[in-house]
Design brief:
Blueprint lengths: L15 E6 L2 H6 L15 E8 L5 E8 L12 E11 L5 E2 L5 H4 L7 E6 L2 H5 L13 E2 L5 E9 L10 E10 L30 E4 L12 E2 L2 E2 L6 E4 L1
Parallel strand pairs: 4-9
Antiparallel strand pairs: 1-2, 2-3, 5-7, 6-8, 8-9, 10-13, 11-12
Length: about 240
């Protein structure tokens, strides 16, 4: 903001030397510079010196007053959530991240909220957090995925010093396709003593093709659970 686009043809900050000073005279004379890593406190005032590198001419001097706002408190949980994929054989899942709000921000103090980042890299690099409107139905982007949660003060936008980690592990749903059996017909013989010739009177065996050691099975008919528990069922 110290550079006026109407007065400066070159607005590329990399072409300027920028330094910070404890007083205005220091900024004008390039003295009394604030050392890197200086710990500021509320009420501190600094002066910014901007010099155009090509000419050595001073472009601007500006003043900044410091107000230090407190950071909110967080419960830095580290948890793993195991969920089933949305689709058969899938690798993504829809998760309600707000279920962790109460653990991360106990008591939900006024003017605070939990915000989530899609990865640790996003959090460390200052990327935008996950859209608040999608938190209740967030679709994962990788497997496993580590979500970072922080508490934010909604007044000053300060975030908690620590963060929470939520690792989402997605188990693919088994792939079952019995659509090929749809429409098969078994002919009924009204009187077994006078069998009817022709037609198919044999039962139909519906096979899932899945291993009974690794999978368990529930078969239903018109909403009612059948006694069969194997990987296939005989339909008569």
């Amino acid at each position: 903001d110290l550079l006026d686009a109407n007065e400066n043809d070159d607005m590329n900050l990399s072409n300027y030397d920028i330094s910070y000073h404890f007083d205005q005279i220091g900024a004008q004379n390039d003295t009394n510079e604030v050392p890197n890593g200086y710990q500021a406190s509320t009420g501190d005032t600094f002066w910014i010196r901007v010099v155009y590198t090509d000419t050595g001419c001073q472009a601007a001097v500006g003043r900044v007053a410091i107000t230090v706002e407190p950071r909110p408190v967080i419960a830095g949980i580290d948890t793993t959530l195991e969920v089933c994929s949305d689709e058969q054989g899938g690798n993504t899942a829809t998760v309600d991240l707000t279920q962790f709000d109460a653990q991360i921000n106990p008591g939900s103090p006024a003017n605070t909220r939990v915000i989530y980042y899609a990865s640790l890299d996003d959090y460390l690099n200052g990327a935008a957090p996950i859209d608040q409107n999608t938190l209740t139905a967030y679709v994962t982007t990788e497997n496993p995925q580590t979500i970072i949660g922080v508490v934010q003060d909604t007044n000053n936008l300060c975030e908690s010093v620590d963060y929470a980690t939520i690792t989402i592990e997605i188990a693919p749903r088994p792939i079952v396709d019995i659509s090929s059996y749809d429409g098969m017909v078994i002919c009924a013989d009204s009187d077994s003593s006078t069998p009817v010739e022709g037609g198919n009177y044999d039962p139909v065996f519906i096979e899932t093709g899945l291993d009974e050691i690794n999978y368990s099975f529930v078969w239903t008919l018109d909403g009612g659970v059948l006694p069969e528990t194997g990987s296939s069922i005989e339909v008569t």
